[in-house]
Amino acid sequence: MTEDIQPVTGGVTAPRGFVAAGVHAGLKKEKKDLALIVSEVPAAAAAVYTRNRVKAAPLIVTKEHLKTGIARAIVCNSGNANACTGERGYRDAREMAVITAEATGCEPWQVVVASTGVIGVPLPMEKISAGIRAAAEKLALDGGSDAAAAIMTTDTRKKEIAVQLPLGGATVTIAGIAKGSGMIHPNMGTMLCFLTTDVAMEQRDLDQALRAVVDRTFNMVTVDGDTSTNDMAVILANGCAGNAPLTIEDHAAFRAGLEYVCRELARLIARDGEGATKLITVEVRRAASEAEARLVARAVAGSNLVKSAIFGADANWGRIICAAGYSGAEIDPERVDIYLASRAGCEQMAMDGEPLPFCEEKAAAILREEEITITLDLKQGTAAATAWGCDLTYDYVKINASYRT
Questions:
Q1: What is the pTM of this model?
Q2: Could you tell me which residues are annotated as the binding site for substrate?
Q3: Does residue 260 share a domain with residue 320?
Q4: Positions of the site: Cleavage (predicted)?
Q5: Is residue 1, in this structure, part of any structural domain at all?
Q6: Which residues are catalytic?
């Protein structure tokens, strides 16, 4: 099924019927800080949100709007989270929707509102208002990359992808942009993600697909153990591909395409973790169930001791099996095999929970690469799961010790 999925250029404007823009509104000193994505026609919409009980005003407004299951526009500012800002913050988030609706020709309830940045600071609404209007004037078919840049905070690189696949007698496109570098931990939300597609499908099916895919991708990313107040993943499906009603096989193919997009964005988020120098992929094999596999994978990827060892190129596999042991999964320690791998090679560190003789120099060389895979073979079943994380570096502390300045 995945062989039919082909990457294409264009980001969130690659699907038919979408335009986008990213502008500098003045929330940041120089960089773009306001993004706008618009569908030419009303789109089926679905979203998942942070489980943090402290929820930012834009997230609350978006949840209210998406009760209809329909949206036309997404507006997002970076540099200010509009979180913990009381009644004013709520009014400002609603005003963002009103201004966006006026500028793009839709209704306020058709607007998804998002913000990211510093918590506890009111929005400078004059700058926001001017920025939204400026972005509306610059909406274009090639504006997806600018939108991807405008939602970044401490990110060091843009995160965008688009793919095409045959579906319902038509070629459909699925695309996405994401923002995430710090305050990333599996508990959706973990970041901001805006997905677009021109497939025609029922909102209920779109919602089910998004939730299933998020659990296998974004909820398997961890950078620092913190879950933010603003995080959401939103998808708009405008039907402009003109496909026939989807069959059961088509729904499975769409979900595979959506998972491809979200998996790549999840990897990009993990690789761009604050201060990170290495991407860590944790693969768990032969678990008793997928739920057990996910518990182990997330625990290992999230272990500060494992992350620190990877940063220092120290093949301390005891930290890996320790994290698996406290994950909550019912593992049998006397069956676990552990491997480390990268472009520099592969080395088995343990068999049946006991150490194997290994070459320290080779193991260190493996861990000096920018992408490392940790594999745990539990030998208890047939289920598997993958999680993504990054190393823990001195720069992570530096970045977060002076985040507001």
A1: 0.86
A2: 153, 179, 190, 274, 400, 405
A3: no
A4: 189-190
A5: no
A6: 190
